[in-house]
Amino acid sequence: MKEILKSAVASVEGGLASVVMGFDGVPVEQYVHDGAGVDIETLGVEYSNALTEVRRTADSLSSGAVQEVAVLTDSGLVLLRPVNQEYFVALVLTAEGNLGKGRFLLKRAARALAQEM
Fold it and tell me: Is the pTM of this model over 0.90?
């Protein structure tokens, strides 16, 4: 799993960190680029709550399963994608990171992680 996460971070401009985490907030595996200064576990725990609420809202609206959530802030980009019903993967980029490529790599990473689980 760590190699999948590392590859996603290293393959995108502005890649900082990635984590596989349960929707219960328990991290499974993580990778943080040297010197990134990202507290990926805390970030994952906080966004697991947000992603759970987004999934709940999508269910109540009968709009289908959530495929991806992107959070863009002044300081960076956080992309979240469910791997299965129990786990999700997050990719953190700098504010100048390549959002399109990050989305593509996260989708690919989620598929690879689902096969490993």
Answer: no
